[in-house]
């Protein structure tokens, strides 16, 4: 970051280059400071200076004027300096500006214009009416719900590389257009998280071992060791280590295959459905060892190749996927895999990271002793051998050079028979980190890159930071489990029509109900109304068309409390009866959102 030139030598001569070079160095230091201070085990790695402080308001305004002019996009007259500065110094432009620029430089002009109109809402639509509208070729395909993942692979193989806008319809359902297509991306996203596919770190935990793993090597609260019971406590600590690693004393050459019954075993409080992998820190590929079966590796690579095509096509068509990936995987997508280290393990396996940090403190003490010239070699060896973790010698922890939680992937040749001691503990930590984040996943990520680049170059994503890629692929951040929608924002974004206005009792009740929704209730409501459980980047304000709520027409003799709301997902249109109370409306919305999924029929 500090050594590489800002741009190619002699390509641009401008008085601002020295200032931009200095800003980039300062931004890199503020962002990656923890790599310079052995701070991999600190819980907080936020930038020393917020990214927003580096944004240049004048430059951003100038860039927005260029990008928001449809004629500039359609004629291809975007100034070359804009792309160069955005990729060399992305920190000087806000995310929204870079997001639009990404579409301009990555795809055809009609798609870029379509993205501009979607981002501009009604103002963008008016501009299109006055000037020029995009002309996108559309390809419609019909799929069956019961085998959506297999059929999605065929669809992507056929259409991912084309410029056509993909639209999905379901067999024996009349619905077509935006709603079914968004639901298709959401359904495939969910299927890709199935534990039996063995794609994601910790998949085995969700299939057969409800109370084990979590990535922990050493328990957070180890047993207290006293002189009287030191051997028993050491045995208990060593046993807890092996249990946390999900390893047996005698390891088979290959991990046992779970039975059909084990595949259905539920994992308490781990995921809504036991068949799917879900980690709070996001998903990261499961490491595959050198001795993995060729058939297994080929199947895993094929799935990651499809995942690359799937995510790239979703971005190309301005669709959203619902795959919560880890920040560490996003770092691979912007070519930062060389910088992955111990601090990134916390974004893959937090418990494993905490355990490695505790072991690292012992390893650091061993390094200090080894470098102390005041002792003889024999004294240094004795002092290092005497090092303990919570009263237990390192040798008695029962660790060897096997990837934690795997049981068959050797970190080095002969690692199965090589015990971890205080002398090689630092090497063990380095190898675990390297195999978990790089060596064990490099084949999967190469397959992902191959699939992705069949649609458009992966390098185009370098205009974003890794933590911003969730917005690029998945839309607006879902927030925490307890994050609520703001009532004022809802009132501004909901468009009442055909029987309702902003002051209608039903609209006020709807706003209050939506503002009280939990994260899961929000996802159900969005899936019901729009076809996707996520909002686009920008939230409700960026929903296009905006959420429109109309009064559901019923005969005067009929009781509205007996009827459910219905939706037109293609235009984000909610038909809401005029219920008698907020309690009735809440119950009917909950019933419609939970029971009215996965079907598109005429109401």
Automatic annotation (TrEMBL):
Residues 211-269 are annotated as: Disordered. InterPro entries: HECT_dom, Hect_E3_ubiquitin_ligase, HECTD1/TRIP12-like. The active site is at 570 (glycyl thioester intermediate). The keyword Acyltransferase does not apply. The keyword Zinc-finger does not apply. Residues 227-244 have a biased composition (Low complexity). PROSITE patterns: HECT. E3 ubiquitin-protein ligase which accepts ubiquitin from an E2 ubiquitin-conjugating enzyme in the form of a thioester and then directly transfers the ubiquitin to targeted substrates. This is E3 ubiquitin-protein ligase. It comes from Iphiclides podalirius (scarce swallowtail).
């Amino acid at each position: 970051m500090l050594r590489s030139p800002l741009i190619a030598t002699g390509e641009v001569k401008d008085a601002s280059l020295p200032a931009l070079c200095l800003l980039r160095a300062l931004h890199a230091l503020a962002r990656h400071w923890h790599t310079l201070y052995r701070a991999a085990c600190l819980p907080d790695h936020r930038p020393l200076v917020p990214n927003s402080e580096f944004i240049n308001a004048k430059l951003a305004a100038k860039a927005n004027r260029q990008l928001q002019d449809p004629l500039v996009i359609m004629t291809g007259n975007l100034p070359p300096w804009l792309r160069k500065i955005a990729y060399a110094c992305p920190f000087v432009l806000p995310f929204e500006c870079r997001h639009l620029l990404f579409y301009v430089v990555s795809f055809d002009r009609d798609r870029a214009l379509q993205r501009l109109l979607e981002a501009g809402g009604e103002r963008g639509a008016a501009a299109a009416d006055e000037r020029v509208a995009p002309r996108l070729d559309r390809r419609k395909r019909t799929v069956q719900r019961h085998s959506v993942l297999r059929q999605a692979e065929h669809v992507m193989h056929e259409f991912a590389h084309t410029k056509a806008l993909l639209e999905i319809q379901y067999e024996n359902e009349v619905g077509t257009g935006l709603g079914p297509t968004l639901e298709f991306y959401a359904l495939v996203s969910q299927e890709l998280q199935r534990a039996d596919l063995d794609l994601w770190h910790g998949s085995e935990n969700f299939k057969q071992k409800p109370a084990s793993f979590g990535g922990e090597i050493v328990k957070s609260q180890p047993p207290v060791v006293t002189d009287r019971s030191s051997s028993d406590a050491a045995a208990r600590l060593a046993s807890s280590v092996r249990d946390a690693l999900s390893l047996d004393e005698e390891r088979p050459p290959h991990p046992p295959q779970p039975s059909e019954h084990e595949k259905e075993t539920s994992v308490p409080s781990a995921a809504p459905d036991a068949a799917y992998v879900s980690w709070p820190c996001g998903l990261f590929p499961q490491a595959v060892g050198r001795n993995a079966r060729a058939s297994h590796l080929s199947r895993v690579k094929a799935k990651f190749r499809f995942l690359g095509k799937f995510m790239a096509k979703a971005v190309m068509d301005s669709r959203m996927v619902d795959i919560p990936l880890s920040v560490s995987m996003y770092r691979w997508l912007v070519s930062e895999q060389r910088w992955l280290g111990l601090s990134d393990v916390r974004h893959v396996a937090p418990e494993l990271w905490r355990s490695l940090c505790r072991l690292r403190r012992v390893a650091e003490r061993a390094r200090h002793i080894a470098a102390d010239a005041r002792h003889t070699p024999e004294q240094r060896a004795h002092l290092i051998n005497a090092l303990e973790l919570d009263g237990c010698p390192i040798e008695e922890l029962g660790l060897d050079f096997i990837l934690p939680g795997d049981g068959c992937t050797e970190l080095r040749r002969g690692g199965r028979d090589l015990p971890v001691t205080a002398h090689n503990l630092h090497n063990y930590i380095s190898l675990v980190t390297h195999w978990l984040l790089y060596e064990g996943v490099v084949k999967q990520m190469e397959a992902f890159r191959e699939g992705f680049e069949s649609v458009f170059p992966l390098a185009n994503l370098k205009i974003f930071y890794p933590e911003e890629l969730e917005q690029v692929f998945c839309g607006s951040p879902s927030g925490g489990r307890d994050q609520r929608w703001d009532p004022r924002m809802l009132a501004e974004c909901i468009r009442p029509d055909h029987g309702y206005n902003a002051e209608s009792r039903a609209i006020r009740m709807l706003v209050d109900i939506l503002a009280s929704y939990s994260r899961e209730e929000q996802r159900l409501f969005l899936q019901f109304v729009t076809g996707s459980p996520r909002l686009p980047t920008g939230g409700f304000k960026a929903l296009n068309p905006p959420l429109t709520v109309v009064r559901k027409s019923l005969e005067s003799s009929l009781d509205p409390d007996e009827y459910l709301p219905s939706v037109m997902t293609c235009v984000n249109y909610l038909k809401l009866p005029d219920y008698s109370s907020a309690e009735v409306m809440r119950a009917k919305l909950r019933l419609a959102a939970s029971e009215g999924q996965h079907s598109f029929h005429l109401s």
